Amino acid sequence: MLRVAVITDEKQVSQGLANDFRSAFERAGGTIVSFEIVPEGDTAYAPYAVRAAAADPELLFFGGEYDHAALVKQAAVAAGLTVPLMGGDGIQADE
Known about the structure:
The protein is α/β, with parallel strands linked by helices. It has a domain at 28-50 and 64-89. It has helices at 12-27, 46-54, 66-78, and strands at 3-9, 31-38, 59-62, 85-87. It has a four-stranded parallel β-sheet, sandwiched between helices. α1 links the parallel β1 (3-9) and β2 (31-38). α2 (46-54) packs across α3 (66-78). The protein is globular, with a radius of gyration of 12 Å. The model has no long low-confidence stretch (mean pLDDT 95).
């Protein structure tokens, strides 16, 4: 089963999504190797991405919205984490 790192912001809906994902994923036999909660208003995702990368995940789950998902992906790539990024429908935008 996959090893997943989770990054989420402090918004109630974001944390709820991340917690629901974690629960369902672990029940299915998956392993959460890192679970990072980013304080509200913080857009410096580098330290969270570095810790996630150090856990050697095969997937990164983001429990936030599209405007921050791009920043998370950029920070992850800069940290050497080139795994797919997954999240709820809030990480997708037509722009």
